[in-house]
Amino acid sequence: MRLTGSFTVSLxxxxxxxxxxxxxxxxxxxxxxxxxVDELPAGEGAVSFDNLSPKQQSVFQQALETDGSATIQRGTxxxxxxxxxxxxxxxxxxxxxxAVP
Length: 101
Description:
The chain has one domain (28-99). The protein is an alpha+beta fold. It has helices at residues 5-23, 54-65, 79-82; strands at 30-37, 47-48, 69-72, 86-89, 92-99. It is globular. The longest helix is centred in the first third of the chain and has 19 residues, at 5-23. Helices cover 35% and strands 26% of the residues. This is DUF7979 domain-containing protein.
């Protein structure tokens, strides 16, 4: 089977984009931002703080104790901070987002 030039280029671009997203940037870190919200938007869910891994709990607490952001180190899963994007902690709900350098 012979691949055409445009198909090969498209495949390479897709693989690069996917691998960059999986690795979380050049050094694998990300920036967690945490912001308190008054209530959960309709139709949205929140993950309980207790259901986060110890590494996730640590970075979440760091963000709360500082200016609302903290560095997510390489090897720390960030999925729960993206989907659902909300964390229930100590009677409050926080919107979370992750930026990749």
